[in-house]
Amino acid sequence: MVETLEPAVEPRKGVKARKRRAFVMEVAIVAVIALLLLIVIPPLLSALGQGVRVNQLGRYLALAIAALGIDLIWGYTGLLSLGHGIFFALGGYALGMYLQLQLPAGQIPDFFSLYGVSELPAFWQPFYSFPFTLLAIWLIPTLVAAALGYLVFRNRIRGVYFSILTQAALIVFFNFFNGQQKLINGTNGLKTDTSTIFGMQASDPRIQTIFYVLSVLLLVAGYALCRWLTSGRMGRMLVAIRDDEPRVRFSGYNPTGFKVFVFAISAALAGIAGALYTVQSGIITPSSALSTAFSIEMVIWVAVGGRATLVGAIFGTLLVNFAKTLLSEQFPEIWLFFQGALFLAVVTILPNGIIGWLRTDGWFWLKSVLGRDRLSTYPSLETDPEVEYERENSGD
Amino acid sequence: MNEKILEIENLTVSFSGFKAINNLNFSMDAGELRVVIGPNGAGKTTFMDVITGKTKPQEGNVRFKGRNILPYKEHEIACMGIGRKFQTPRVYLKLTPRENLELSCAAQKNVFAALFGKPSGSERRTVNGLLETIGLANKADIPAELLSHGEKQRLEIGMLVAQSPDLLLVDEPVAGLTDEETEAVGNLLLALAESHSIMVIEHDMEFVRQIARKVTVLHQGTVLCEGSMDEVQNDPRVIEVYLGSQDEADH
Amino acid sequence: MTPILESLFGGLSIASVLLLAALGLAIIFGLMGVINMAHGEFMMLGAYTTFVVQNALKKTPLSDIYILFALIAAFIVTALLGLILERGVVRYLYGRPLETLLATWGVSLILQQFIRSVSWQLMLGIAIFSALFFGALWFAGKRLDFERIRSWLIAIAIPISAAIAWFVCDILAKIYKLPFTKPWFGTQGVDVTAPRWLRGGLPIVEGYQLPYTRLFIIFLTVVCIAGIYWFLNNTPWGLRIRAVTQNRNMSACLGIPTQKVDALTFAIGSGLAGIAGCAVSLLGSVSSNIGQQYIVDTFMVVVVGGVGKLVGSIVAAISIGLLNYVVASNALKPLISFSPQLTAIADFFASGPMAKVVVFALIVLFLQIRPAGLFPQKGRTVDA
């Protein structure tokens, strides 16, 4: 009996060692890429006369943080949110309000006087405080998402219904931010580039460099967080909920809690992304951050890179956004056609995105193109450990 | 062991007027292996839906170990100790059998535990033991979507056991299996019956004969008769329901 | 009495537009579980079709009743587009509703930009591209090893056809200049004027008259619903659609051509969007993003109404329309004037956009009581 147990236990140890090696490898790769982004790429781009691109890269790295959150809920948990602009905007507005309030004592931001408001609305008051703002950037989106998520998930509203409801919520927030001139400057949004932060103007290159570095570091932190969430038991739960939610209940789990949790986490990531993006682009307006198009775009970044692969979310964000910048610089009209085609193409031809494709078919395709064709047989035969075991031991 | 594990009184479930279950009374002793049979549309699956909390009845009582379980949701009932296996195997296809089992086995099923909890030594031993029992030890670490139908059936039974429920509800466990696999599943159920109460819904009479001690026949949402396999088979009402009445057959 | 009547008719006229727009969406969603994000753009195309028909018939004796031709034309144009969308994209994505959502959103982006930049140049380019591409596919389809080379062929044919089309159009644009390259509609909105007999209004009470256009839309909605009811309940294809809505697999087993049913339903649903677009073109200026104004409200109608029953959509549309109007016009102000706080709150929300905030909050509350909508499906099959 003991002998028959052996093959089951032996590979397990091998698996553990391999996992540890893979982990060290991954940390090393992430560190190298982060260092490249921090030290090598900005001077390189400046040297090439493409200094503008550094700012763009910083903004898109911030967007990649939001994409990680989308991947977490869509790629892993199967919740398609079309309203993540809400959380992005909440984070952006939180920081924007703090920056607007960097004024001599007794003054209130200029735009209030346009609408005849002489007293600062009460909900602006806490944003004088820097620690509060830091907290609000991620906590407010988290709480809003948790409340909305709880009300929706509790009733087992899912799939397309959830997507539509998040989009409706987005419209509601847009109407609010867009319509309330006296509270939040309506359509014009909040400008951040002329305010002072850390004793300097926010558009100062040194400040922008700080935020570039912050974007890189927070992206790494966000990646680590999502990696941790998706690798352990939590990750398996999320996949289980995605693939068969009713079944999860009969295993004794309540999916509501898990879904609310992961939705809130992704909202927090979107909030952080919103703050970083806002301060690097100098303004936040309802029509940019709260438009339906922007929220769905976030999904397409993930879809292009590859859902349920965190690297794919980051890669896809950078790829799509640089493509957008380059294309709309050259042919502004074509961008929408291109984006529409991108939605269609990714969904129909590359449902697993670029990274997902590389991990599966693409790898074999590349090999066969390079002339290292491998005979592929019935997949379960290939991966059947019994067959592998026999193969390994047949030589003895 | 004469205490009742499951008692059901005057149960009625209707879907916009159609009574899927009609004034049904049923009880099961602890440690019993019960087989429920019945023609299509007899309300067998709805019956299981009610016990597991998926469907709420219009009337009636369902007591599990003396406790009324109607107000509770599916996951709460599952945690109380009722496990269910579905008609078609429903395992998590993207996870490996080991992960499938660990997920069902975990004692703490809240968000916090999923974040910070690690499977305890005893849990890991249970999972390894179960992988042996269901014969999937060699395929423990490949995605479950690569398993064959029979392997998935066994994996799902394994997941059910991993939950360590007191009452197992098993819906057509041998549908689509070969004869050998059917017998293997039968033996597995018999082995499990030594330490659990089990209710099996089945169509395959060969299989029912292999495992059944006591059989309940459902028809049109009510219990038609109950008894040993032989009693049931010779009951004229059962013959009528299953084979059609002799008069009709003559025509 | 007057404010109540006023809000009743005001709400009803909003509701009728909503219902007309949601009808097609609800049928498609009920049948296939697919939300067509391009539904709003189909409405927009219907509105532009109305504009084109109006201009085409302007100098003819038919100009007084152009709206009837426009309705038919809008239905046909959008139904055909719906058919193309279903056959070309949606049918490959059945069972993946979220992906369908994204794909149809892509289509809606393309349609929006298309309307803005459509010109003879673009149309000719598309025609040349389609002729070359599909011609090449048809030609290669005769070869025996077509399946093997198919993906390669597509990958090669698309860029080559696109390049040729681009090149030809570029040359023609240099020769014929503006008449050839000028956008038909441009980014500015276009205006549809109602025919003479629809101008003015029906005086209901002193100081309030119901515009004839609104009455026409209410009438149109009633006709469309009656038509759909008749079609679903009294024709063989209607029966098939109902069968597939209830149980797709069983219907397929019984020999119902589910693919044809899907295509037909999608075409009819899209055609209804065209009619809705024709209707809204009477209410104001038509621009390329007109669809976006209506789409979210129509989604809400589907969510509140529930799947598979038209009655649900009707009740939902009327309630949402009424609620929207009552909150936005602050019609209840006289009733709550006793409390200054309540009045202040009502004033705060008394505008079109802010009314939507209230409506959304109420919908979320409603879903706490009836998560599956007003008329949910019952039985074992749900959520299996």
Number of strands of chain A: 4
Query: Which of globular, elongated, flat, extended, rod-shaped describes the shape of chain A?
Result: globular
Integer-rounded radius of gyration of chain A: 24 Å
Judged by helices, strands and strand pairing, the structural class of chain A is mainly alpha
Q: Helicity range of the residues of chain A?
A: over 70%
- Classify the helix fraction of chain B into a percent range: 25-40%
- The largest sheet of chain A has its strands arranged as 1-4
The protein's oligomeric status is heterotrimer
Poorly predicted ranges of chain A: 1-10
Main beta sheet strand tally, sense and closure of chain B: 6 strands, mixed
Order of adjacent strands in the largest pleated sheet of chain B: 6-7-8-3-9-10
CATH class of the domain at 4-91 and 167-176 and 194-250 in chain B: Alpha Beta
End-to-end span of chain B in angstroms?
Answer: 50 Å
**Most residues in contact, chain pair and counts:** A-C, 46 and 45 residues
Q: Strand portion of chain A, in percent?
A: under 5%
Radius of gyration of chain B: 19 Å
Main beta-sheet annotation of chain A = 2 strands, antiparallel
Topology (elements, then pairings):
The complex is a heterotrimer of chains A (396), B (251) and C (384).
Chain A: H1 2-47, H2 51-76, H3 84-100, H4 111-114, H5 130-153, H6 160-179, H7 181-184, E1 190-191, E2 196-197, E3 200-201, H8 205-231, H9 233-243, H10 245-250, H11 255-281, E4 283-284, H12 286-289, H13 292-305, H14 310-330, H15 334-348, H16 353-369, H17 379-383, H18 385-393
Antiparallel strand pairs in A: 1-4, 2-3
Helix pairs in contact in A: 1-2, 1-8, 2-8, 2-11, 2-13, 2-14, 3-5, 3-11, 5-11, 8-9, 8-11, 13-14, 13-16, 14-16
Chain B: E1 4-15, E2 18-29, E3 33-37, H1 44-51, E4 59-64, E5 67-68, H2 74-80, E6 82-85, H3 97-105, H4 111-116, H5 121-133, H6 149-162, E7 167-171, H7 179-193, E8 197-201, H8 205-211, E9 214-219, E10 222-227, H9 229-234, H10 236-243, H11 246-250
Parallel strand pairs in B: 3-8, 3-9, 6-7, 7-8
Antiparallel strand pairs in B: 1-2, 1-4, 4-5, 9-10
Chain C: H1 2-32, H2 39-56, H3 66-88, H4 97-117, H5 120-140, H6 146-176, H7 178-181, E1 201-205, E2 208-211, H8 212-234, H9 236-246, H10 248-253, H11 258-281, H12 290-305, H13 310-328, H14 333-336, H15 340-348, H16 352-369
Antiparallel strand pairs in C: 1-2
Helix pairs in contact in C: 1-8, 1-11, 1-12, 1-13, 2-3, 2-4, 2-11, 2-12, 3-11, 5-6, 8-9, 9-11, 12-13, 13-16
